[in-house]
Amino acid sequence: MAMTLRTDSAVEAALTFLAEREGLSRQEVVTRAILERAERLGHVDRVDVASRELKVEWAETLDRLGTV
């Protein structure tokens, strides 16, 4: 699917730098950045869910530890 990405001179310079530094096309740099960001946010979401579940599961123990 085609998409137009509007950038300013700072983004253009950064994109060119990354593409040259990594030996990738500018399109590949953008694609990887999007996928990496999505993975990172997904990880944060999974950690949040696990933390909430564990707080409920270990609430009594955490309560006791907090009062020692």
Report on this structure.
By secondary structure, the chain is mostly helical. The protein has one domain (9-66). 79% of the residues lie in helices and 0% in strands. It is built from 3 helices and no strands. It has helices at 9-22, 26-57, 59-66. The longest helix is centred in the middle third of the chain and has 32 residues, at 26-57. The mean pLDDT is 93.
Structural class: mainly alpha
Instruction: Please tell me the total number of domains.
Output: 1
- The residue fraction in helices comes out at over 70%
General form: elongated
Number of strands: 0
Measured distance between first and last alpha carbons: 59 Å
**What would the average pLDDT be, to the nearest integer?**
93
Order of helices and strands: HHH
Strand content: under 5%
Compute the gyration radius: what is it? 21 Å
Largest sheet at a glance?
A: none
Q: List the total number of helices.
A: 3
Poorly predicted tracts of residues: none
Spell out the key features of this protein.
single chain; 68 residues; mainly alpha; elongated
Give a quick rundown of the structure.
This protein has 68 residues and is mainly α. Helix content is 79%, strand content 0%.
List the helices and strands and how they pair.
Elements: H1 9-22, H2 26-57, H3 59-66
Helix pairs in contact: 1-2
